[in-house]
# Entry
Amino acid sequence: MPKLQFTKLVWTIIALCTVAAGCTTTGRHYDQRIDAATGKPQWVLQGTQTSKSIYDRIFWGVGEADASGEFSRQADAANQRAKDELQKMVERFIEVISRDYIASGGAAQAGFLEHQATRYINEMTGIVLPEIKIMEHWVDQGGRKIFAIAELEYTRMVSLLAGSSQVNPGFKDYLQSKGESVFDHIATQH
# Structure
């Protein structure tokens, strides 16, 4: 009988640890560990970037603001700066995909013209901007700066662009076939 109780206890502990581990990582794709030397989270130190793992591809934007004054106003400023950083990264990604698509020779037949690329980039960026999420804030130990991290999942971005009637059908196909390799190339350069 004691052996059965011990087995139940072990399985209960394993189940609780599994649930706790799942709860702490759900929705968090960025590195939350604290750097021992600086006391800052890794995401603050790493800044704006793309990240590829075996599970997903993510765009992150990190923004900061002075923490003096009303906290909610300063948090809003950090949020906006994080979104702006992420927007620049998404624009660069879409620009690279657009230029590759044009260079492939298929863009002109599909009506995706080089002299209109900037307009296309702005339109496509505008489609995905509402999906950018602020994930977390962090205030430095001295209380002088507030940081925000914004996130956009690659698969969500592709899904939004593929589902939009505003996006050129040929570009959609090109993005779905070549987008991951372009993202991966960008992610390895950070």
About this structure: The longest strand covers residues 57-66. The beta strands are 49-52, 57-66, 133-139, 145-153. Residues 112 and 168 are 7 Å apart (CA to CA). The chain has one domain: 38-188.
